[in-house]
Amino acid sequence: AAMRSRAEVDATLQTAKLNPAELLPVVHCLSFGPQAGGGECCLLQLEPGLCAELEAGRSLIIRGEKDEHAVLCSKDKTYDMKIADTSNMLLFVPGCKTPEELKADQASCNIIHSQIAGFSKNYWELRRCRPKLKKLRKLLMEDPYEGPDSQKDQASTFSKYTTEDLLNLIQASEEEILHQLQVIDACKIEGYWRILDFDYEMKLLNHVTQLIDSESWPLSKVPLCACLEELGSLEPREMIEHILLSYGRKYVDDGEVFFEMHEDKICRAVAQMLLQNAVKFNLSEFEEVWKQSVPEGMTTRLDQLQGLALVDRSSRPETIFLLKVEDLPEDNQERFNSLFGIREKWTEVDITPYIQDLCAEKQTVGALLTKYARSSMLNGVKVYNSRRPIS
Fold it and tell me: What does UniProt give as GO cellular component (predicted)?
């Protein structure tokens, strides 16, 4: 296209009934460059924090397999990616000067000829979301670690996963993945992340609690060295240390490493062991057996079982059964469908442990219930049931 002259620009302004005195003297004349295809460029809208990440030379990574909705991850956060359409055509003009820059640069020539390198009618919008971590446990549970003598481990055909593999497969940031590996008590064995088989984990925990009992150590001060010394002949030393890390808090006192054992977590594990072999358990019988089964000096309380077991107060006699929050769906609506399938009406106290992890940033359990359930009063107690019929 022929370059426009100043006279042509002024004639156009006159036709458009615009007063040149009210405009900046510099004029951009735009023309489409030979490569101005729309498909080459994508726009991504970033919040200031993410922008700073890129400006500091760090990476943002898009994660997801073919059948998954793409997410974008920084080092420590995960964002949903959605396409937002705009009513205006967005043009990409390299070296384009904004009015602010032009004011500062009064001496610039009063016609600038710019080529449009590309255009777009939409952009990617990012929204902070919960990391999709359910798959992490699912992958590691394909092949739980049953100990060094397990024949199954030698013959296993399942994949094993390094940190690198998990970063490629899980839709979450590196920090969120590493934190979740800690939460689910995974451990690194020969460079691969593994979850201990529950029976093997209980066997290790049993060794440790029996040793604490026989040595009469206080639960708040269990010495690492003595544990490794005493139990090293029964199980690998790194497994003994892993179980202490899983069920205790490590600290150093006078140069020696000790563990303060988590009473709630140990009581919870014992309850899981008792409940996993029964469909339903008479509540008072269970409480009695549970109290007898935990290590000396520990106190069992039903609130230790939040998100692990559910008490049915309406049955006669009252019962308790295993219901693990990690076995429920990750999607909000599916989670509620599944809970209302298990029980028609829930109190807020009972349902909270099973939906707490669905709360987005600054979102409360109450807000979730308002959206996915309807409330009513039952014998003077507020209960929640499904907004939609459950098939």
Answer: chromatin; chromosome, centromeric region; Ctf18 RFC-like complex
